[in-house]
Design a protein that fits this description.
Elements (H helix, E strand, L loop, with lengths): L2 E6 L6 H6 L3 E4 L21 H12 L5 E7 L3 H13 L4 E5 L7 H22 L5 H23 L8 H11 L4 H15 L11 E7 L5 H9 L2 E7 L17 H11 L9 H14 L4 E7 L3 H16 L4 E6 L3 H4 L3 H10 L1
Parallel strand pairs: 1-2, 1-3, 3-4, 5-6, 5-7, 7-8
Helix pairs in contact: 2-3, 4-9, 5-6, 5-7, 6-8
Bound molecules: iron/sulfur cluster.
The site of iron/sulfur cluster has 16 residues, from helix 2, helix 3 and helix 11.
């Protein structure tokens, strides 16, 4: 099946629209083994390392079965870099979807209008029809996936599933045919029912938050430093499955409501609502500390960090803020920071 690539600073792209056009939604992830040398000819090296890495992949050429791209507004980096994609990357179909920062009625109406325009352009370009009925079918399928992922996530509290494993499952879901993904998640749930707990009292239970963290080996590095990521506030994490969509009524209204009601991410405002969500997770999952990871030059996380830092200090919640490069060699330099944090909590 033809694939539509997704660039998303969070998980704000309505995959249902792409799927309803009988196209596969294929989220782009960074590749820590490449350096953004060509991307740096177009963007200052002080821009977010993750977006420069994705741009580098676009400039080098995406796989042949990717026939188009939807870039959804997250932060200013993803927004501004879309113009560079338009100019420099060889793809016939590219669409920038405005996902509003605010969550009021005007913003919702605007978002619905923009989704209608995306549908119109997909239909015109690929000679397809995206009907309400097809959208509803995809909403039902995606809800099943969200429920399965949430069920899987809860196995973290029983110490039967590490976040690194859940993280990899979410990444696979974001890049494979969704019917296949649902089957994969069902099989994993069956397997988990027979799995032994890895209960280890020396592991510190933490909440992980921060920028888009898509390199699974980075997550494993954190775990190897003595942490169990019992819950998270990540886009490749809880934000992908925490809520479900209304399956009746107008499908675009349902999609918009879902995105406006799901937990607020660092790319959106206001920060205090995000803090409330994190605080509720800390209470529910009995967290020992919070780790906040920023991709280097991630403006959203850098703006939020002082506010979060103050709040956690007031609540006496141990908090570690780390800015990371997008290459595995550089991860090693962070190990002492993780080790020291594990010791103090
Ligand atoms: S890591 Fe930060 S700056 Fe980079 S795309 Fe994500 S939100 Fe934007």
């Amino acid at each position: 099946m033809k694939k539509i690539a997704i660039i998303d600073a969070c998980v704000d792209t309505p995959e249902e629209i792409i799927l309803a056009g009988d196209l596969d939604a294929y989220r782009l992830f960074g590749d820590p083994s490449i350096a953004p040398t060509t991307a740096d000819e177009h963007v200052p090296a002080s821009h977010c390392v993750w977006t420069r890495n994705i741009l580098e992949q676009g400039l080098r050429g995406l796989p042949n079965d990717i026939v188009g791209l939807v870039s959804t507004h997250g932060c200013d980096c993803t927004n501004r870099q879309f113009d560079i994609w338009l100019d420099t990357v060889d793809l016939d179909f590219m669409y920038f979807l405005n996902s509003p920062l605010k969550r009021d009625q005007t913003a919702k109406d605007f978002f619905i209008q923009d989704m209608k325009e995306l549908i119109r352009q997909l239909e015109d370009h690929f000679n397809i029809e995206i009907t309400d009925q097809k959208l509803r079918e995809q909403i039902v399928l995606m809800n099943k996936i969200r429920r399965k992922l949430k069920e899987l996530s809860e196995y973290r509290t029983k110490m039967m599933l590490k976040f690194s494993e859940l993280h990899q499952l979410i990444k696979s879901t974001l890049t494979t045919d969704k019917t296949h993904a649902l089957q994969m998640l069902n099989e994993k749930l069956e397997e988990l029912k027979t799995r032994e707990s890895f209960s280890d009292e020396s592991l510190k239970h933490v909440l992980l938050t921060g920028s888009v963290i898509d390199d699974n080996s980075f997550v494993k590095n954190i775990e190897n430093a003595g942490f169990h990521i019992v819950i998270d506030d990540m886009c490749i994490g809880t934000h992908y499955f925490w809520n479900t969509m209304d399956e009746s009524g107008d499908p675009l209204e349902a999609i918009a409501n879902y995105h406006f009601e799901k937990p607020i991410y660092s790319t959106k405002v206001p920060s205090h609502q995000r803090f409330k969500f994190i605080e509720s997770l800390i209470d529910k999952y009995q967290v020992d500390g919070v780790i906040n990871i920023a991709q280097k030059f991630c403006e959203s996380i850098l703006y939020d960090h002082p506010f979060l830092s103050d709040k956690f200090r007031q609540n006496k919640m141990p908090y570690l803020f780390v800015e990371k490069e997008y290459n595995r060699e550089a991860y090693k330099q962070l190990s002492t920071r993780f080790d020291a944090f594990a010791e103090i909590i």
